[in-house]
Specification:
heterodimer, A: 385 residues, 16 helices, elongated, B: 389 residues, alpha/beta, abc type-2 transporter like fold, 2 domains, 68% helix
């Protein structure tokens, strides 16, 4: 009963702190929104287009680019603007449609279309390959019209219209795609990436920063006052553990609710998701209490806590998928509990995982929670003694 | 010694003793830059292995294989010949190849007949880019075959008699699609993650100075330090100048250490030293102004901590310190330009990619100074209240 009273008072103190509420409520939602909007389109090339007066042929090519799968078109008015966008990596490559392209095509001349890409930049070269395919496909109709004009006579425009009308009916060599592997090893893009990873990041981060509250309690001599009353040390420790676990659970629940309702995230198997959230809340509670007993001043907790939390988040795959880093960094990342939590969420969100499929990561996370809570309890007992 | 220098010296001494300044100003940004550098080392150049299954062994299939092994593609595609589509599927599942291309038996013979055979691309869910590129290369190759077929069909539809079909096919085989992509270089360097995130993290942790300085001001006021200073022959603005000077010195030292260490140890490209220094200087001035504004607006220590936290994380989120701004939607790139750190990161991005000197960063530096002027002027208007209430 005393433990619940300690928890209630601690929670009240935190609820009155508007800064803490900003970090617990508003910031995670904003970060999910911003990272969710940014982490998407891994399989899509961003292609800039500059039309210098290419006419109808140019407009047709722009439409073909816009309809190509895995190409997102962005328009620029000048070549300089497109150059800058390529240099800044805002687009992977840019296509410059020359002035008079339409007239040149009608006269049966070859047209050279500028593609801005650095030879040494493999991502830009890969994007240029995707653009080449669209240009080649578009040029096929022009080739047929020019060939027909040379062989059978008639106007180019008439033969171009004829070729365009025949194109859908002439048997062609198509390129069929088939997915060879059944399930993903990374989280889906967009908010389904940002919501679970930010849940992992912020529950841990806030718990670490929350260590400052425990230091304040120590500074104010509140533990000594509690110890003077007929309250046992283990009751105080239980109260603090309950406080941190409750905060972590509340924050995780909020992120899950906002993720599902506002950002349309499907959190996978409900039972497995609940167990994962509870275990992660215990990891966070342990880390927060450990921070509260390790740091000497609130300044240290608010300075070192976020730095450690962000570094662990980066190592553990919260800022970028661990699939994109080297295998050594993937192994190093799994020293942090974050990587195991992200692995478990990946299983639930990308592969339809259940409680049994995430049992391994859950056991490891439970081990982290036990280790953190035991260390924190030992240190808090020393402080209380 | 003038009062502002004494106040600044005292502030800096306190923060160094607490170690939080060293953690935030030097250790944290360096650790994160190191993590970035190690995480992305060797992964910033795109490359994948393509499994090719040639069940046709005809001349058209040989031409396609030759295209795939072209030196121009070799920079990002390595070809591995496999015996069957099943072997390619197994290799994708085992992650030894990232995409596959199966050329079915009879492909060459059917390419000019009435029933052409399709090419098969095998993709991986974890590497959709490899699948996209393979499909693009195959589609570019097929585009010429299809253009030739369409040319013959159109000529036939335009009135060339059917008995001349063989002649048309032979003539079309020499055609080349009249629209060609010609690559042009702009001489820009690739923007490496470490070159973007080194200044991004340095600036992010520099922003924490707002929180620490505002907090220290209100702690001093609560302890009666400000009143005691005002009782001495010290003008109110000298106290604020002292606080500003401590932020300025801390910021310059922190950014300089991070720039030097990340350049030397992790290969971060901060660009031309004079231009990078101008950006750092402008950024530190803007942090001084934001700090002054927080002190001016807040009435209590709690309020100052709250406003500072919102300012720090609001600026970092909008300005692009957490995300790679270039790949963000255009609206976020526009929003970033409402913040001084967003302008600073644009300047550092241009220095790392386009190069150049002071001219490259003139606009970003100007924009940061304008932001600082507006924030600073508001802060000065509010400063007297903070010092006297």
């Amino acid at each position: 009963m005393n433990a619940i009273a300690i928890m209630r008072i601690s929670l009240l103190r935190i609820a009155r702190d508007r800064t803490a509420l900003f970090f617990m409520v508003l910031l995670p939602v904003l970060v999910i929104l911003i990272i969710g909007a940014s982490v998407r389109g891994f399989g899509t090339f961003r292609v800039g287009v500059v039309d210098l007066g290419a006419g109808n042929a140019g407009r047709q090519l722009i439409t073909a680019l816009a309809h190509a799968p895995n190409i997102a078109v962005m328009s620029y008015t000048t070549v300089e603007a497109a150059d800058t966008a390529v240099a800044r990596s805002e687009v992977n490559t840019a296509v410059v449609l020359p002035a008079g392209m339409d007239a040149a095509v009608r006269r049966g001349r070859n047209v050279q279309i500028g593609v801005i890409a650095e030879q040494t930049n493999t991502t830009q070269q890969a994007a240029a390959t995707a653009v080449d395919a669209v240009i080649a496909k578009h040029g096929g109709t022009v080739q047929a019209a020019a060939f027909t004009t040379a062989q059978a006579g008639g106007s180019f425009d008439h033969n171009l219209a004829l070729a365009s009308s025949l194109a859908p009916h002439v048997a062609r060599v198509a390129v069929q795609s088939r997915q060879a592997d059944a399930s993903a090893t990374v989280l889906p893009e967009g908010f389904s990436y940002s919501a679970p990873t930010m849940l992992v990041l912020f529950v841990f981060l806030n718990a670490l920063a929350g260590g400052a509250a425990m230091i304040e309690t120590r500074r104010l001599g509140m533990y000594e006052r509690m110890a003077a009353a007929p309250v046992r040390a283990r009751t105080i420790i239980a109260g603090e553990t309950l406080t941190y676990a409750t905060i972590a659970l509340l924050q995780a629940s909020l992120i899950i609710f906002v993720g599902a309702v506002v950002f349309g995230v499907s959190w996978g198997n409900p039972l497995a998701a609940v167990v994962l959230v509870v275990v992660w809340a215990l990891v966070g509670a342990g880390a927060g209490m450990l921070a509260g007993t390790l740091f000497r001043t609130p300044e240290q907790a608010t300075a070192i806590g976020p730095a450690v939390g962000i570094a662990f988040g980066m190592l553990g795959g919260c800022m970028w998928p661990l699939a994109v880093v080297s295998s050594t960094m993937r192994q190093v990342g799994h020293v942090t509990p974050h990587a195991w939590a992200v692995d478990a969420w990946t299983s639930l969100l990308s592969r339809g995982g259940t409680l049994s499929t995430i049992a391994g990561p859950l056991l490891i996370l439970a081990g982290f929670a036990c280790a953190f809570l035991t260390l924190a309890t030992v240190r808090l007992r020393r402080i209380l003694a | 010694m003038a009062a502002p220098f004494v106040i600044a010296g005292n502030d800096l001494r306190q923060r160094v003793r607490d170690r939080s300044a060293i953690v935030l100003g030097v250790i944290a940004p360096l650790v994160i830059a190191a993590l970035m550098s190690f995480a992305f080392r060797g992964t910033e150049t795109f490359h994948y292995t393509l499994g090719v299954v040639d069940a046709d062994r005809g001349p058209v299939a040989a031409a396609l294989t030759q295209v795939l092994e072209d030196p121009g593609l070799r920079r990002f595609v390595s070809v591995k010949h496999l015996p069957s589509a099943a072997a390619a599927t197994a290799a994708i599942r085992a992650k030894t190849i990232q995409a596959g291309l199966a050329i079915p038996a009879g492909f060459s013979a059917a390419s000019t007949g009435s029933h052409p055979i399709d090419l098969q691309v095998l993709t991986s869910v974890d590497n959709s880019v490899a699948g996209t590129i393979t499909s693009s290369i195959a589609a570019s190759f097929a585009a010429q075959l299809n253009a030739d077929r369409l040319s013959v069909a159109t000529a036939g539809a335009a009135g060339i008699p059917a008995d001349q079909a063989a002649r048309l096919e032979a003539a079309s085989a020499t055609l080349r699609i009249p629209e060609q992509a010609v690559q042009r270089s702009i001489g820009a360097h690739q923007l490496k993650a470490v070159s973007y995130y080194s200044p991004a993290m340095a600036i992010f942790f520099l922003l924490f100075t707002v929180s620490f300085t505002a907090r220290s001001f209100f702690v001093d006021r609560a302890n009666g330090m400000i009143e005691r200073m005002l009782a001495a022959p010290v003008r109110p603005y000298e106290i604020l100048a002292g606080k500003a000077l401590s932020v300025f010195v801390f910021g310059i030292v922190s950014l300089t250490i991070i720039a030097v260490v990340t350049s030397a140890a992790f290969g971060a490209n901060w660009g031309n030293p004079a231009a990078a220094a101008a950006l750092c200087l402008a950024m530190v001035i803007s942090v001084v102004c934001v700090t002054a504004l927080v002190i001016g607006v807040a009435r209590t220590q709690r309020q100052a901590e709250g406003f500072a936290s919102i300012a720090v994380f609001g600026l970092a989120l909008l300005g692009g310190n957490f995300i790679f701004l270039s790949t963000s939607p255009p609206i976020m790139r526009h929003l970033a330009l409402l913040t001084p750190n967003g302008w600073a990161l644009r300047g550092f991005t241009d220095l790392a990619t386009k190069g150049g000197g002071l001219g490259t960063v003139m606009v970003p530096v100007g924009a940061i100074l304008v932001c600082s002027l507006v924030v600073g002027a508001t802060a000065v208007l509010l400063a007297r209240r903070a010092l006297t209430t």
